[in-house]
């Protein structure tokens, strides 16, 4: 009769052996080999299949296969979780890149709109020269020179500096005109008629605000903080 054992059965749950139930057979009366010592040395932690009642042997083998299946399922779940996390990371990176590109595209569109708005404004030299101008006429000229999205900021500064009087003079400093250039002669870079032509003054004031503060709204922000610009 053969001596057959199920190695590790008795300690399967404690050692998490995935191959519980591996059969080791030693033929009775067979010549001893170098592996015999190894077989006998593990006898202490081995349950003989023959020692298990015949009615329970199928249950033992089924339990062993169930443990193997559970271990394989756990490994598969871990692999699936890792794969899902990696897919989520890649998708997040893709979404972030897409948002960045969209923001950059919108910024370019706004910049192009501003450029188009500025290029569509009227050249101050195209306005007919008059002997005098009302406040409403001066404002109408400004609306045709200053970009629409910057007009309110420009208007706020002019309201504070000269109340739209293109001939306004600061008695203390000598600042002159709509935007109170100091000295007023600075505006000659926009036209020799800077004393009497509001269009020339508006052109010079707009260029000044763009050069120093990037825009009339930038100039207005500075004015609010300092009461000058």
From TrEMBL:
Keyword Metal-binding belongs to the record: no
Residue ranges constituting the Transglycosylase SLT domain according to the UniProt record: 153-218
Name listed for the protein in its UniProt record: Transglycosylase SLT domain-containing protein
Signal sequence annotation: 1-22
Native species: Streptomyces crystallinus
Compositionally biased residues, Basic and acidic residues: 89-113
Tree of life domain: Bacteria
Keyword set, alphabetical order: Signal
Cited InterPro entries: Lysozyme-like_dom_sf, Transglycosylase_SLT_dom_1
Region Disordered: start-end pairs: 89-128
């Amino acid at each position: 009769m053969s001596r057959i054992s199920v190695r590790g059965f008795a300690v399967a749950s404690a050692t998490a052996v995935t191959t519980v139930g591996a059969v080791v057979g030693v033929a009775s009366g067979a010549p001893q080999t170098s592996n015999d010592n190894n077989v006998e040395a593990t006898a202490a932690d081995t349950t003989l299949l023959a020692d298990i009642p015949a009615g329970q042997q199928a249950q033992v083998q089924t339990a062993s296969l169930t443990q193997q299946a559970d271990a394989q399922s756990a490994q598969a779940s871990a692999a699936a979780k890792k794969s899902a996390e990696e897919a989520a990371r890649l998708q997040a990176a893709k979404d972030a890149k897409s948002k960045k590109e969209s923001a950059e595209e919108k910024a370019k569109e706004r910049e192009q709109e501003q450029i188009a708005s500025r290029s569509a404004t009227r050249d101050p030299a195209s306005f007919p020269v008059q002997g005098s101008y009302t406040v409403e006429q001066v404002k109408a000229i400004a609306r045709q020179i200053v970009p629409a999205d910057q007009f309110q900021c420009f208007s706020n500064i002019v309201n504070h500096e000269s109340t739209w009087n293109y001939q306004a003079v600061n008695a203390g400093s000598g600042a002159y005109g709509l935007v109170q250039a100091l000295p007023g002669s600075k505006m000659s870079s926009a036209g020799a008629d800077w004393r009497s032509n509001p269009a020339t003054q508006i052109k010079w004031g707009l260029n000044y605000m763009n050069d120093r503060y990037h825009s009339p709204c930038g100039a207005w922000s500075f004015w609010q903080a300092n009461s000058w610009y």
